[in-house]
Design goal:
single chain, alpha/beta, Aldehyde Dehydrogenase, Chain A, domain 1, Aldehyde Dehydrogenase, Chain A, domain 2, 2 domains, seven-stranded mixed sheet, 16 helices, about 40% helix, about 20% strand
Length: about 500
């Protein structure tokens, strides 16, 4: 079996820094001890921030040409790819992820996303004329009006446990390409894999202080990264509850804040597409165990055919094999820890108390002496007020709801505090697309899905602020400066 990453401490301003305290990393698949990791002291996390400030203000990175930054970052990605086997083994060990997800989605997909992000940045204008009418230019004695895009400064990148490497890549790469200095802080549940960024930064020759990786077992460092006056921007992916706290912490220093938060997305099946409901519902929990912010965990079907849909989804879920990460025949692994498993149990119980019926699953998976496994679960929900329809469970639990007509389907889908990524299935593509335009979410997938460096993603309402990926995701790491230039004569 491939060994995991050997590093056990933070990478700060070009040095590997040990702390006095350690915290344990656990394998969710069998509850085994993965490693003891040295927690970065608060004083060292502050040094990572101040060194990021120093390097940014010095221009050692931001004043390189875009082509020079691209060359170095491609080298960083090459180093990550060369250590891919070790990185995949590490992701699987600390997150309990199936190997196919760790390799195919996080490593291969993440590297493709990162490389495409570099190419997208290079294709974009970062200084361009403003379309000011000629008569206004003349009246103001202006020869040229220019819009210039410049780096924000120091960026705190705070990533979640469910896709640590992919989320880091979609924050770190555009931020660095834009000329920022970055402090990466991964989830305490999955800190090891992100230490690969420190090794890759060393190998690629990124100037010390431009990219630091700090690991901790609590939240002291994360709070410092969202409050310190030397930090100009916080980019966070995680729960809405934590996102609210970050907004409050960042407010006194008026930081830029980009948040990709929770979701309670819907997948809507038009009457002519109900034959796809089993496959579509299965995709919610397969591979990730439902631990994805974009998971469409509310399944909306025509009311008069709801029993048929419930039966089809239950049959599909019965075919999902739950197993260890290295079991290639398994479609679903564990959730991240005991608290996540308990949360699934609690919401199933609350759903039943409010009139739901368990059509399949609903309890801890059988056959495992250890590990945080929960059965893929199908709930027949009476209405959208059910706790399982209102709350992000972040586990392999979905609910099926009936709608009277398409107006009712839109009402139900939009009746949530979230708005991240909905889905619509319909053989009549025009009708499905018309419905998609009425949904209040940052993305809507009609009969398909796309995750690309060229396509933005993000949330409406309490699912977040700003966008990641796409041109909007790059601009998020930039300030806009207007230059008004006149002839002195």
């Amino acid at each position: 079996m491939t060994a995991i990453i050997s590093r056990r401490c933070s990478y700060i301003a070009g040095k590997w820094v040990e702390g006095e305290r350690t915290f344990a990393v656990e394998n969710p698949a069998d509850e085994s001890h993965v490693a003891d990791v040295s927690a970065a002291p608060a004083v060292e996390i502050e040094r990572a921030i101040t060194e990021a400030r120093r390097t940014f203000d010095s221009g050692i990175w931001s004043e390189l040409t875009a082509g020079e930054r691209a060359r170095i970052l491609r080298s960083l990605l090459d180093h990550l790819e060369a250590g891919g086997d070790t990185l995949v083994a590490t992701m699987s060990a600390e997150a309990g992820q199936p190997l196919r997800y760790a390799r195919g989605t996080q490593l291969v997909g993440g590297l493709r996303l990162a490389r495409d992000t570099i190419e997208l940045y290079l294709s974009m204008p970062h200084e361009e004329p403003n379309p000011v009418p000629v008569e206004q230019l003349v009246a103001n004695g202006t020869t040229l009006s220019v819009r210039r895009y410049e780096p924000v400064g120091v960026v705190s990148a705070i990533t979640p446990y469910n896709a640590a490497i992919m989320m880091a890549l979609q924050k770190v790469i555009p931020a660095l390409m834009a000329g920022n200095s970055v402090v990466l802080r991964p989830s305490p549940l999955t800190p090891l894999s992100s230490l690969a960024f420190g090794e890759a930064a060393e190998a690629a020759g990124i100037p010390p202080g431009v990219l630091s990786v700090v690991v901790e077992g609590g939240a002291t460092g994360a709070e410092l990264l969202t409050t310190h006056p030397c930090v100009d921007m916080v980019s966070f992916t995680g729960s809405t509850a934590v996102g609210r706290r970050i907004l409050a912490q960042a407010a006194p220093t008026v930081k830029h804040v980009a948040l990709e938060l929770g979701g309670k997305s819907a997948q809507i099946y038009l009457p002519d597409a109900l034959d796809r409901v089993g496959r579509g519902a299965m995709a919610v929990v397969a591979i990730t165990a439902g631990q994805a912010c974009v998971a469409a965990t509310r399944v909306l079907v025509p009311e008069e055919r709801k029993d048929e849909a419930v039966a089809a989804v239950a049959q599909a879920y019965a075919a999902i094999k739950v197993g260890a990460p290295d079991d290639e025949s398994a479609l679903m692994g564990p959730v991240i820890n005991a608290a996540a498993r308990d949360r699934c149990e609690r919401f199933v119980a609350q759903a039943k108390e409010h009139g739901a019926t368990v059509a399949f699953g609903g309890k801890r998976a059988e056959g495992f002496d250890r590990g945080y496994y929960f059965e893929p679960t199908v709930l027949d929900l009476p209405d959208n007020d059910n706790p399982a329809a209102r709350n992000e469970i972040f586990g392999p639990v979905i609910g099926i709801l009936g709608y009277r007509d398409l107006d009712d389907a839109v009402r139900i889908a939009n009746d949530t505090e979230f708005g991240l990524s909905n889905q619509v299935y319909g053989n009549d593509v025009a009708a499905a697309t018309a419905l998609a335009r009425r949904l209040r979410s940052g993305a809507v997938n009609v009969n398909t899905g796309m995750f690309s460096a060229y396509a933005p993603g993000g949330g409406y309402k309490q699912s977040g602020l700003g966008r990641e990926r796409g041109t909007e995701g790059i601009r998020a790491f930039q300030e806009v400066k207007h230059l008004s230039i006149g002839d002195p004569r």
